[in-house]
Design a protein that fits this description.
Elements lengths: L8 E5 L5 H9 L4 E5 L2 H9 L5 E8 L3 E2 L1 H9 L4 E9 L3 E4 L12 E4 L1 H6 L1 H8 L4 E3 L3 H10 L5 E5 L1 H6 L3 E4 L9 E8 L15 E7 L8 H10 L5 E8 L7 E7 L6 H12 L3 E12 L2
Parallel strand pairs: 1-2, 1-3, 5-15, 7-8, 7-9
Antiparallel strand pairs: 3-4, 3-11, 5-11, 6-9, 6-10, 12-14, 12-15, 13-14
The structure holds prephenic acid.
GO biological process, one term: L-phenylalanine biosynthetic process
InterPro entries: ACT-like_dom_sf, ACT_dom, Chor_mutase/pphenate_deHydtase, Preph_deHydtase, Preph_deHydtase_CS
GO molecular function: prephenate dehydratase activity
């Protein structure tokens, strides 16, 4: 349980009305939400004690992982996941009200790289050849378009960003696939599950595993059998480069159990006995944004 005698400071990938801001609001309504410009700045803010929590994007159903978040958590900081938030994502095409007449002749489209990728087909068929400009978030794109009313430019983002920055949505729901969801991590220094109203009551643990250095054949198979014979269900496995040489990876695994269970304790012990390095990000519950 989190002690809630004080108001928590919560960093999020801003500015206001980013998808991360909306996700953070579902779990931290009424708390002190503080926008930061980039994912590393959010993570550093919690690591050096400026804030108690940080909310950052981790994975999108269409585009896959946000490598910056995963790599930062593995290489740069010792933090824990205290919750995950799943949020539906709807991308809209928006312009400054002064440019509504010209929106078909847009000269540049601004958004976060994940959002641009989620709308790749739409942009290809509708605005082929129009330059795409990456921003630190969809809300940053909306803010930029709002600050440049004389330019024939557009942003891709959510309806709250359109409202917040006074833009007009000229084409709603332009994401290429209907099932567009993003998973966000709530990070904290302490290894404590966030136990607020509205979670799913199913603990999940994220482990980051480095295989033994001897590079023996079957090492990954051995790791997987540690979970398999204990009937520990994995909901995700992914590899990321260790950044030490080609072919060197670590694995991120999400296990559907509490780190404190007998089976999980045994699994971690056995992994270490096999020569693996195991970094646990802790156990957390899932919160869903409607
Ligand atoms: O740009 C935003 O609004 C964000 O919160 C970032 C982010 C991401 O990193 O994937 C979050 C959700 C959407 O998938 C698009 C962008």
């Amino acid at each position: 349980m989190v002690n809630k005698d004080w108001e928590s400071r919560v960093a999020y990938l801003g500015p206001e009305a980013s998808f991360t801001h909306l996700a953070a609001g579902t779990v931290f309504a009424g708390e002190w939400l503080m926008p930061y410009a980039t994912i590393p700045e959010c993570i550093e803010a919690v690591a050096n004690g400026e804030v108690e929590f940080a909310v950052v994007p981790l994975e999108n159903a269409l585009e896959g992982s946000v490598p910056l978040t995963i790599d930062y958590l593995f290489h740069d900081v010792e933090l824990h996941v205290s919750a995950e938030i799943l949020s539906p994502i709807e991308q809209h095409f928006m312009v400054h009200p002064q440019q509504v007449e010209n929106w078909q002749d847009i000269e540049m489209v601004y958004s976060h790289p994940h959002a641009l990728a989620q709308c790749h087909k739409y942009l290809y068929y509708r605005f082929r050849g129009v330059p795409l400009e990456q921003t630190t978030s969809t809300a940053a794109a909306a803010k930029y378009v709002a600050e440049n009313p004389s330019r024939t430019i557009a942003a891709i983002g959510n309806e709250f960003a359109a409202k917040k920055y006074g833009l007009t949505i000229v084409e709603p729901n332009i994401h290429d696939f209907h099932f567009n969801h993003t998973r966000f991590f709530v990070l904290q220094k302490k290894n404590i599950k966030l136990d607020k109203k509205g979670h799913d009551n199913s603990p999940k643990t994220t482990l980051m595993i480095k295989l033994p250095v001897d590079d023996r054949s079957g090492a990954l198979h051995q790791v997987l059998s540690v979970f398999s014979w204990r009937q520990l269900n994995l909901s995700k496995i992914e590899s990321r480069p260790l950044k030490t040489g080609l072919g060197n990876y670590f694995f991120i695994m999400d296990v559907l159990d509490d780190e404190q269970s007998v089976m999980m304790q045994g699994a971690k012990e056995e992994l270490r006995a096999l020569g693996c390095e195991v970094k646990s990000l802790g156990t957390y519950f899932t919160y869903k944004k409607e």
